[in-house]
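Standup notes, structure subgroup. Blocker cleared on the beta-D-mannopyranose input:
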Amino acid sequence: MLKKNLIIIGLLLSMSVNAQISATADPNATPQTKHLFGNLVKALPQGILFGHQDDLAYGMGWTGVPGKSTVKDAVGEYPAVYGWELGNIELGDLHNLDSVSFDKMKNYIREGYARGGVITISWHANHPVTGGNAWDTTHGAVDAIIPGGARHEIFKLWLDRVANFMLDLKTENGELIPVIFRPYHEFTGNWFWWCQNACTPDEFKELWQFTYTYFTEHRGVHNLLWAYNPEKFETREQYLERYPGDQYVDILSFDMYQYGDPANSDVFETSLHHRLGILTEIAKEKHKLPALAETGFLNIPYPQWFTQKLMKGIGDHALSYILLWRDGGYVNGSEKGSFIPSQDHFIPVGSDPAFWDFQQLYRSGKFLFQKKAARLKLYE
Ligand code: BMA
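Run returned:
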């Protein structure tokens, strides 16, 4: 009898620990959103979901070809994570800042979800005071849009347009599609109006908390997991300096790109490893999911970058997902950029050495693409 009671107590205890671990920040998150979070936590030991920005919309030398995907062209299957971008939606535009139509984006999102994939969305919002773009770092923007600020009411209209998009992400059965929402990203940089050079930690936290509360309580948006996403940091204090609080965040992430000549420097992989150490430790303590939300090496001029730099930097850290940035787009205004080896990457795909290195990453078994991700049944 005593043994039976002990077993029951043990079971109840482990259930409550699991409930705590698998809880979304939003207590009213839709069932599919809660399942996604819980299943991603469970999947951590199984590998890292592999993602790509704008994968279905265009790539090097193509745009809008139904069913096409740069990742599928390279390794034979779709990615597990699909990244999309909302910049300009706040203005009421029909296309985002990279010319992807929002209607088409909704369909790509439905396609990815139907394949069992994960959707993540970033938002390069325009400057709410000057009318400049996201890279306009004129100070005072955050101060002007938080409650009490001169542009607060206008900013609510911007949030409404983003919220409308999220609420329109429905399957044919009317089921809301869960999204990892990653607003105000790379805030430890100095290139966006919400970055650390242009607002105080308290202003940033208030912006985040207001956005979260406006979406969940005022607009009834409950299909989001919220991703906190600095760029550079060296210590856990720096990582958490602008953290709005556990009740507003589901995913802990950061962005990190390779720059310079990797042949002469190990800074990328050593810093990546160091930062992932901090990230995974905090994520464990807070029962959040760790992710590398953006990474890549523009045009992959170092062919072993995937295995010798990216995978080396990741090492044995358990991450929920990584996301490579968009292919075939224009980076920094004019330069044509590619982050995944593709048929149009300089030379025919088979003779591109970075292509073979990317195959090694695929075959390493450390990463989950569409087929394995679908087997996880992330939404059930
Ligand atoms: C940046 C660049 C820009 C793009 C923006 C939003 O990193 O790729 O060209 O407009 O992301 O997708």
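Discussed briefly. Residues 30-375 form a domain with the TIM Barrel fold (CATH 3.20.20.80).
Next: hand off to the docking folks.
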